[in-house]
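Q: I'm writing a short explainer about superoxide dismutase for a general audience and would like to include a description of its predicted shape. Could you first generate the structure from this sequence?
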Amino acid sequence: MGPASAVSQSVIQSFSHSVPGKIVPARPVAQNSIRMMNRMVALLVAAVIAVTATHAEEELVAVVRLISFSSRNVTGNLKIVQTPLDGPVTITGKIFGLTEGPHGFHVHEKGDLSEGCKSAGAHFNPENNTHGAPEDTVRHVGDLGNIMANTAGEAIINITDNIISLRGSNSIVGRSIVVHSDEDDLGKGNHSLSLTTGNSGDRWACGVVGIESSYGKWNSGSFTTPSVSILVIFFLIAVHQHLKF
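A: Of course. Here's the predicted structure. Afterward I'll give you a sentence or two in plain language.
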């Protein structure tokens, strides 16, 4: 008798002794009952795998409206997508009103724009690291490098990053994205600000990262846990009904 069959027989015997005030002798376990139990277990496992696969295909979507608080009329719209839920984050969009060339592009720690981009705080840096390039092992979570503007002052954004997230400890939701006046030296310059801001200059535009997709998707663990729990409950009910006969 295999482990699954032994477990099935044990469960059946436990149910047979559980009727209050009445002693019922354990019934012998027939082969067809064991096969039925094994089928039910297999169906439960398949259902859990299906729910988990659905979870992996989900995506989170956020948006940013960039506005300028300086004399520069820098504006833009960004879309931020994370799929699967714990996968990389992709930022796409367009920014207008820049000077030609590279501009520092970072996530800042606060979503407070009450005093313009100044009140957005420093780079988002929960691990208290030095400033670096997006590909560096040591970097701020919010270090997204540079964007490049063409001769018309327009920048097409298409950035994929494995460090920022739309949920969890590295979530950028409710924080700000800031576009700077100058090129980010990625922490490799000799300036006193290289290891803190990349010496990327003034804050020309900023915007708060806001939720676009439905709120229910943002609750960590909200996909698999309830679904699996419901499946387990139905499984136990089915087992109980099966053992009554």
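A: For your explainer, you could say: The domain at 60-217 is CATH 2.60.40.200 (Immunoglobulin-like).
Q: Perfect, that's easy to follow.
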